[in-house]
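Researcher: Can you fold this with iron/sulfur cluster in place?
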Amino acid sequence: MSIKIGLINPKMEGPYPPLGLGYITSYLRRYGSHSYEIRIIDGNTCADVKKEVEKFNPDMVGFTGHSPQITEAVKLSNEIRGWRKDIFQMVGGVHVSADPINTLKRGSFDLAVLGEGEATFVEAVDTFIGGERGAIKNIKGTAYLEGGKTIINERRPQIDDLDTIPFPARDLFDMDYYLGLSFGVRGLVRSGVTSITSSRGCPYSCSFCGVNIVFKKVRQFSREYCMAEIVELAAKYNARSLYFADDTFITNKKSVFTFCENLIRSGISKKISWTAQARANLINWQDLDMLRLMKSAGCIQLEYGFESGSDHVLGLLKQNKVTVEDNQRAIDVTHKSGLRTLGTFIVGTPGEGVEDLEMTKAFIRKNLKKLDYFQTFICTPFPGSPLYETCREKGIVEADYFDEAEKRERNPGIAVYTDTIEHDIVVEALKYLDYLGLKKVRLKDKVIWVLYHLVKGNRDVSHRDKLYIFKRLHFYFSSLFRPAA
Ligand code: B12
Ligand code: SF4
């Protein structure tokens, strides 16, 4: 007997596929004891997820979700329960790992998978198929509701050897969609870009970040594993550029050297380019050779979360482990190496004052030539991060994220979460910095982007796409008008 499993990615616009669902699928295919018919129902690529689920008529469903996706996951799960009570429903991913109690309370999930999901998923699916409903409750790394109370089981140890996990099941993603024209290399419009991971976890713990909710221990796939995955991505999917979604790609510098040398030796660096995320305090002038080697190995851009031009704010966000001086050095070294430098910045951090904000603007203006692209975000507390706790204690956010999400839905517009600076000032700063950032995107790329969506819009008349084109046009034209500094 083959069991039907529908894995659901609630809509979240972005150029990369939900790799988490790809990994749990490939792990089940390799280590599961039964036969499975698995489908990934992706809100980014199908117009009506619920209809798609009904058409597939699965025995089980499994949702994934960042916090911004979780309300949709809860809604769908309740609708599915209303339609067919006997479907076994699971939920995994970063949000439920951070807040199992409220997520289980709101949705109709039979089981929550907390943290790294592969091994737990296989055990849960096979136990379900074996009909041992009682045993499902003892599976490590899970949580469930019983009589209105949340039971959280012991955490499952993480997989030591990541190479035992097969490549994500990309055959179940709509790769034509994900490889289409996008900003997958941030700041450049390109097609053929997709994501890959070469490690899990991060040794740091920035106050706004939720990375360590899922992956506690830092581990790496071997460089041979990564090479083989890259070769497959080029050969099977015709990928031409890769985004390493690792939290900090350069933590293990020795391994970066080996990896780059392998890419060059194999010749694959001529076929495929890549981008990765780094951390400013890890880059020194002595690393110039490493960055140059990365460039020769096909790297085109290093992405840094610079966050702020104020040491006071960096102290709040990065626990005093990164300074403005580190940020400046990282920009200088990366620029000198010939790699593109991408920076992200945060405005509206609780504790940030007007002077701090001005320092961030000044830092960006000073580096406008060296920063090839940058993006600015409002400081947003997500469950599981220390920042969420701080904001909850101060009454800036609701204790229950679902109440917070409802509040935001009732008050659309740009949400700001600070009590130390006027919200309008933060929004104005965001608009100004967005404008400066957009100016860094070459006109050619902007035009290609707009034309692509116009042409696509003529052929594909879906409401969703029209809305998308409208948003993109708005994005383009607003970059032509300079807001006040
Ligand atoms: C690539 C990425 C994206 C991509 C999306 C890719 C995707 N669909 O997954 C894009 C660029 C679109 C994106 C956007 C955002 N992202 Co993001 N993203 C990442 C990143 C860097 C990698 C994700 C990934 O592939 N991880 C690797 C896979 C293997 O891990 P995983 O998805 O967690 O899956 C594992 C487990 O969770 C579990 N699992 C997951 N799903 C399921 C389902 C079932 C049924 C089961 C059993 C198990 C299971 O098993 C998997 C294997 O172990 C992570 C950081 C990270 N390290 O995870 C941030 C991260 C997930 N993002 C984050 C954030 C904040 C965002 C944004 C909100 C940022 C912003 N301010 O705009 C936006 C959301 C935009 C929107 N439209 O709503 C936060 C999430 C915090 C939170 N509480 O939600 C993270 C953790 C980064 C951080 N600094 O904190 N992101
Ligand atoms: S923001 Fe980056 S460096 Fe900081 S904890 Fe998260 S992944 Fe690590």
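Model: Folded with iron/sulfur cluster in place. The radius of gyration is 23 Å.
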